[in-house]
Amino acid sequence: MAFRIAHISDTHLSSAKPYFVASFLKVANQISGCGADLVLNSGDMSLDGSAQENDLIEARRLHALLGLPVRFIPGNHDVGESQDAPGSRGLPVFSAAQRRCYLRHFGADYWCLHVPGWRIVGINDFLLGSDLAAADEQIRFVHEVASTAGEAALALFTHRPLFHLSADEQEVSGRFLNPRPRAMLLAALAAGKPALIGSGHLHQFLSHDRGGSHHIWAPSTAFVLTDARQPRYGLKQTGYVEHVLKPDGSHFSRLVTVPGLGSPSIADFPAAYAQYAAPAGPLRRDTATEVVPS
Ligand SMILES: [Fe+2]
Ligand SMILES: [Fe+2]
Question: Which of 2, 17, 158, 163 shows a CA-CA span of 20 to 30 A to 211?
Fold first, then answer.
């Protein structure tokens, strides 16, 4: 039997600012109707959970409505911005306290599921390159999973994509894993290259093969970013991704659109991130990123 994952991402849920709850419920309703063996949210479950714990609570509550097995990994809006790209987006910086708060509401931030023919691994990519003791523990965990997978294929899930086109990219930003933590992760995976690498964060859908892995960027269920704010790497629309993992180690992944969901722009919700909203302008060359939520 194939194992079906409904891969959602960037739901940006909040009780105080419930702009994207209706979209989430439409997606949840469709997934519940179609069924799935697992619903996996690849981060930014909450609108502003790194500053407002209530947003984490509300996001967790809403996911319980799915009535299906659910797993999570954290996004920058849940645990704060990566320590190796600080100050780029006005979010708190990832810390031990941020992590503890996340763990209270969503459980383990790195984990592995065994299903026929596959090991499904979710990681907290904000631990990579951080000064937390758990950073080394997570790397050892990834190495252990990769080196003991045997004939099983690996599916890895992170919040940020590993890179745009190549692991050799040198950009340091909040968009992708930065070069040093990416190298650490790839070294830990040397014994077992993932067949599938799923991510979120950019609110764009992209499917391409790079470095022997199939990289899939899941879109947001909530909103897209304007071209003035963010380059168009893939498809700017809302929805989710279905991954079908077959026991023989093969898989297929597809973008699923949801009737009535639309693809609103964050520009249409100026109060959502008013605390660090800034007019569109040239990239900040110190970080080569922009002041935008994603
Ligand atoms: Fe994000
Ligand atoms: Fe996001």
Answer: 2
- Cα–Cα nearest to 164, from 215, 238, 236, 89: 215
Q: Is the pTM of this model over 0.70?
A: yes
Exposure string over 189-198, b if 16+ CB within 10 A, otherwise e: beebebbbbb
Tell me the CA–centroid distance for residue 248 and ligand 1, in Å: 33
Length of the chain counted residue by residue: 294
Angle, to 10 degrees, between the axis of helix 179-188 and the axis of helix 133-148? Answer: 40
Distance CA 163, CA 179 (A): 9
Amino acid at residue number 24: F
Stretch 222-251: mean pLDDT, rounded?
97
Q: What percent of the chain has pLDDT over 70?
A: 93
Exposed/middle/buried for 205, CB within 10 Å: 0-12, 13-18, 19+? buried
Around ion ligand 1, residues with a beta carbon closer than 5 Å are 44, 75-76, 201, 294
The Å distance, Cα 44 to ligand 2 centre, comes to 5
Give the ligand whose atoms come closest to the C-alpha of residue 223.
Answer: 2
Q: Nearest ligand, CA of residue 76? A: 1
Sheet containing strand 70-72, edge to edge, reads: 70-72, 38-41, 3-8, 240-245, 251-256
